[in-house]
Amino acid sequence: ELFLQLQKQDTYPVLVMCDQWNECFPVSEYVSIRYDNTRFHGYIPAYHLTMPRAFHKWDGYKYKRGLKICATSWVRYKRRDYRPDLLGVKDHEVRTVRAFTQQEFANYVTYLRLMGVLHHFPKKDLEYFYMMTQGNGFQTRKMLSMLY
Predict the structure, then answer these.
(1) Which of 44-53, 70-79, 104-113 has the lowest mean pLDDT?
(2) What is the pTM of this model?
(3) What whole-number distance in Å separates Cα of residue 123 and Cα of residue 111?
């Protein structure tokens, strides 16, 4: 009912952001007889549970002022073979994050310092590390975590 009301209203913008979206698709730790003779071997798929299911079918284009942003995260888990075509994600819905500008790179490094990820990062080396990583966020995080 909440989603139907949010669909029809046009007063407020609606934004749903979901991190670790990839974790909505493997099997959960919960077992059910209903899933015994399926490809899940008795385990309930995560997207059949309450919260992942609510966001799985939530499409921002159906809302007058709605947007859904999902990000995959692989920090704590082994990288799974995430294939959008098997999950019903269309090609035009997949986006790749562009490289940082120099200002965005500086903001990112500042954020990492504030969060306690980086220690004693010299400000004079910002341009050097920007040149080394070409503004690529993944390479930036990898290099800075290795050195600082």
Answers:
(1) 70-79
(2) 0.41
(3) 13
pLDDT at 78: 61
Altogether, the residues listed in the chain come to a count of: 148
Angle at 26 between CA 78 and CA 74, to 5 degrees: 30
Q: Which secondary-structure segment (H or E) carries 30?
A: strand 27-31
- Grade residue 9 by pLDDT with cuts at 50, 70 and 90: confident
Report yes or no: 130 and 105 within 8 Å, Cβ to Cβ: yes
- Nearest-angstrom CA–CA distance, 44 and 81: 19
User: What sign results for the dihedral spanned by CA atoms 117, 120, 126, 129?
Assistant: negative
